[in-house]
Hints:
- This protein is an alpha+beta fold.
- The chain has 13 helices and 20 strands.
- It is about 35% helix and about 25% strand.
- It has an eight-stranded mixed sheet with strand order 6-5-14-15-16-13-18-17, sandwiched between helices.
Amino acid sequence: MAKIVIAGGGIGGLAAALAVTRRGHRAVVLERADEFAEIGAGIQLAPNGLHALDRLGLGDEVRARAVHIDELRFMDGVSGEHVASMPLTGGYRRRFGNPYVVVHRGELHRLLLDACRRSDAIELRAGSRAIGYRQDGRGATVLVSGGVSVGGDAVIGADGIRSEIRRQLVGDGQPRVAGITVYRTVIPMERVPEELRWNAVTWWAGPGRHFVHYAIAGGRYLNLAPSVETGVTAAFAGVPVDGDRVHRAFADLDGTPRRLLALGDEWKSWSLVDRDPVERWTDGRVALLGDAAHPMLHYAAQGACQALEDAVVLGRLLASDAEAIPELLAKYNAERHDRTARITLAARASTRLWHPAEAEAKARNAMLSALSESDLHDQVAWMHGAREFGSAGARR
Length: 396
């Protein structure tokens, strides 16, 4: 039995703790904040994310609390035209073995946290900010602010996009600022006109911008997330912004999306950031996971899914021989690299689909509207259809 020290108590870190302890190990989870909590609004979970949660024993609980989405709906945000929809019910669920759902980030985090609290093999330590690590041939230790250290047989850095474990392991500086600003708010569903309460994840695409909305929290709230190419060069997160700025940024959109945006209040803004894929995110007995390893733009709706997949693969590999941890972590890196790199780059490239104008937008609409239901499912099969989560999943 090995002791795994996990830096980061978010979705990825808690999932990793569950995965390794289900294989007979012990885990200590270090969270920088004074309590284990999760901020944010909606998370989309494709079937691959639910398959990972099934492996962690939480799939049924998540499905019971989630909104099961009927379709992904693509709209021309300027003309208001319904361009295409990808059905997510019968054929999709049969093919990929699970529904496509959305949950509130806080709900998913609480389910993972409660499962960790029920486990005698998991120790949760809040107020413990990781600032680095050290290791030798026998073990690895997380260095915690205040002069504390927590040692074990392996260290997993799940401490987010600005990971201190990554800073030491990879040393690739600050995240890449994508030049895009996203605005977010959540509104009670009773404020939404009934004719606009669609059971769909809906995209309104416009020149240099698009707007996504979908129900969360069992359908009690509508999550609004418009984003626009602003050329921003500085990273910022959760900055309050006046609603008038949001409305001006999307004034060129059709009446329906503007009508929905007008319902929003208490807007906050983020500059979107990610990192270039790297070949190696392990160092002996230390490995990265989730956003610390492969942060990606949210446009592929796969960030949480990929962190969950990481956790499942990590647990599976560490079950084989805890004495060979450095080799097993290197294998984890090798199994996960191609798939996560492909999704990272696909999320970046997706703006070519969302953001064109005029003739390019018309060509895009013609291309999408010509695709059949099966064609649309084929396009996402390599992402949504994965069940083993290794390198083969990157090539499907």
